[in-house]
């Protein structure tokens, strides 16, 4: 059984290094992509402050994201590639950090309480497989340190999972 350890939040570099270590331990020995996505979502939702949603969308059929494991309120089930922050991250094959979702053209409001969003694409061999999506009720919640930290968590997830 994996025991989640509380991590001090004041030093973001250290926070994300410790979070990455915990995630590596949590996913060790398990290759199932859904099980690993479920545990990553739970770990992040438990330890990362000021989130109201943390989870996955997986690319299906090349043109649509479908809801995967998550923590938070009920969510949009299907998102077309190119629509909203998640679909935009897939279309551009890059992380999107949005300080104010209300200022993002075409934002899809699954939870009206969300004010900022960070979406990290899951890319293997140049192909986008899905995204890790994080929402916060705080405007400007995410910064470049969060982006780098979550891009590292995405790498760990991909390396540990048969996806």
UniProtKB/TrEMBL annotation:
SUPFAM superfamilies: GAF domain-like. SMART domains: GAF. One of its GO terms (molecular function) is L-methionine-(R)-S-oxide reductase activity. Signal peptide: none annotated. Residues 32-163 form the GAF domain. One of its GO terms (cellular component) is cytosol. InterPro entries: FRMsr_CS, GAF, GAF-like_dom_sf, Phosphatase_reg/MetRdx. PANTHER family: FREE METHIONINE-R-SULFOXIDE REDUCTASE, GAF/PUTATIVE CYTOSKELETAL PROTEIN. Belongs to the free Met sulfoxide reductase family. This is GAF domain-containing protein. It comes from Metarhizobium album.
């Amino acid at each position: 059984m994996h025991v989640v350890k509380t991590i001090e939040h004041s030093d973001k570099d250290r926070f994300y290094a410790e979070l990455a270590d915990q995630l590596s331990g949590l996913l060790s020995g398990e290759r199932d992509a859904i099980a690993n996505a479920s545990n990553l979502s739970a770990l992040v939702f438990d330890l990362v402050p000021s989130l109201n949603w943390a989870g996955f969308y997986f690319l299906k059929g090349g043109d649509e994201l479908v809801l995967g494991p998550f923590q938070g309120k009920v969510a949009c089930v299907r998102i077309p590639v190119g629509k909203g922050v998640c679909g935009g991250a897939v279309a551009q094959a890059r992380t999107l950090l949005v300080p104010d979702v209300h200022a993002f053209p075409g934002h899809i409001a699954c939870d009206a309480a969300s004010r900022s969003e960070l979406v990290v694409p899951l890319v293997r061999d140049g192909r986008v497989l899905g995204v890790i999506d994080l929402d916060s009720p705080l405007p400007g919640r995410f910064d470049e340190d969060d982006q780098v930290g979550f891009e590292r968590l995405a790498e760990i997830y991909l390396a540990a999972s048969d996806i």
